[in-house]
Amino acid sequence: MKIQLFECNPFVEKTYVLYDETGEAIIVDPGMYGAEECAMVERFIQQRGLQVRFILLTHAHIDHILGLSWSQKRYGVAVYYHPDEQSIMDTADDMAVVFGLDGGVRPPEDYSYIGEGTSVAFGMTELEVLHVPGHSPGHLCFLERGDKMVLGGDVLFRESIGRTDLPGGDYDTLLASIQEKLLRLEDDWRVYPGHGPSTTIGHERKHNPFLQQYQ
């Protein structure tokens, strides 16, 4: 499996395109803001002749879904996210205005809920779904065991963790989620977060100041 990241919108959010040798692909957290960023992702997909099969959301905070409406219209695919994110999704357009961004973010019409214990697949690739709340109530992480890769959203960053001061966030829940779901992985698992550089479970286990209690 291959992964391509794009830094998007004023929050410098990371949008990911995942694809494999079959030419099938998915978009994870489409945060593209404006025509130029949408064109950047579209150009990459076109140049490699990829077929987008669906869209995955780690969570529904505005910086991760600014390009959702465009992506669904352009590729005609469903979006998958956790049901506990629905209230955040429903107020996304209002949140855009709060942050001084143009509106136009609409809840998807074609969507399905996913959660812990399920998996999603495209091409020859399967992603395991983990429910990792704390940053938001329905936050998901996606594991690809063949390459030991985690799409972590805003749960775990390099030497930091996601913020918990937004509606639905809870600090203790987030730390418990990281301990129970992510720190059980081996040290060589690589984490691709929603902001900032990638990291590994081993690096965070040793150097993340928020996780030292779990050593």
Short description:
The protein is an alpha/beta fold and 215 residues long. The chain has 6 helices and 14 strands.
- Main β-sheet: number of strands, strand sense, barrel status? 6 strands, mixed
**Broad structural category:** alpha/beta
Shape: globular
Order of helical and strand elements: EEEHEHEHHEEEEEEEHEEH
- The name of the CATH superfamily reads Ribonuclease Z/Hydroxyacylglutathione hydrolase-like
Characteristics:
14 strands; 215 residues; 29% strand; 24% helix; alpha/beta; single chain; Metallo-beta-lactamase, Chain A
Question: Could you characterize the architecture of this molecule?
Answer:
This protein has 215 residues and is an alpha/beta fold. The protein has a single domain (2-214), classed as Ribonuclease Z/Hydroxyacylglutathione hydrolase-like (Metallo-beta-lactamase, Chain A, 4-Layer Sandwich). The protein is built from six helices and 14 strands. The strands form three sheets. A six-stranded mixed beta sheet has the order 1-2-3-4-5-6, with helices on one face. Strand 7 (119-122) and strand 8 (125-131) form a beta hairpin. The longest helix has 13 residues, at 35-47. It is globular. It starts with a strand and ends in an 8-residue tail after the last helix. 42% of the residues are buried.
List the helices and strands and how they pair.
Blueprint: E1 2-8, E2 13-19, E3 24-28, H1 35-47, E4 51-56, H2 68-75, E5 79-81, H3 86-90, H4 92-98, E6 111-113, E7 119-122, E8 125-131, E9 140-144, E10 149-153, E11 156-157, E12 160-161, H5 171-182, E13 190-193, E14 199-200, H6 201-207
Parallel strand pairs: 3-4, 4-5, 5-6, 10-13
Antiparallel strand pairs: 1-2, 2-3, 7-8, 8-9, 9-10, 11-12, 13-14
